[in-house]
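Before the break, one more example. Copy the sequence into your notebook; we will annotate it together after we see the structure.
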Amino acid sequence: MRSFPAELGIDAVPACVTREWGFDVASAEFAPLGAGSYHWVLTDAEGSRAFATVDDLDVKSWLGDTREAVFDGLEAAFDTAASLRAQGLDFVVAPIPTHRGENCVRVAPRYAVALFPFVDGRASDFGEHDPADLPAVAALLAELHGAQPGPRTRTAGLELPGRRHIESALGELREPWPGGPYAERAREALAAHAADVADLLELADRLAASIAARGAGWVVTHGEPHAANVMHTGDGLALIDWDTVALAPPERDLWMVAGAAADADAEAIDYFRLMWDLKDLAEWLDIFRRPHEDTDDTARSYRGLREVVASRDRWL
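Here is what the structure looks like once it is written out:
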């Protein structure tokens, strides 16, 4: 995320990391990166660095409907990453446990913090992989898909996370949305394409039913292995951001490297590609129908919402 998290004091994260992990923070730099979590680069007095992530428990609908459920899902995801690392999957950038063995803790009622090793390398921008990287990324995913799930690995299922936000928004288009500066613009954009969005939901349902009927095997999937989550390091590729890890059909990952996954199910590829757009739409509608401010993050979300609601012709 690019904007500093609301309701969180500037010293809250360094103080939490020092207290819970024993990492004596000498300097803390907020890093405006990514779109799903907030990030800090922390340095101790000896110059060692660590990377802290903070997750907003109000906006991760794929993990649960309440803050407690989302925090439990986040714990399970990070526990799974630690389990994968322990199995010998060295490309998994797993969290560092606290002195009590926890992989994330609450830093405030709305936020959870996790600490990771600082990875010295480079990642590409969000989006498609460089074609030259596809074989290596596909091989990494094949190794992940052959791993054993951890004791707390959740199952993603074939339901659309946050679908209720889309359906609720579609049902409340006649009344103004008072959430904030983007609320009315979001309502108008959705209203202009309400029938199109309903068609996309029906398409997702048909694809999900077809995939379920075939009963293909499910594997451990990352969920978001796009170019920005694959880092190039001196030791090879590293895969970061594990809050979406779950058991699912392999195409949940493979649609992002479809050109290098010859044995992938084409219909499942389409389903998870569409699911990606609709999941984002659900999250954006939830944001704009609640109190919000005009920030770089909300501006980017509004642009994304406009693109997705107008995407019917790309699918149907």
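The chain has a mean pLDDT of 93. The first strand starts at residue 25 and ends at 31. Try to locate both features in your own notes.
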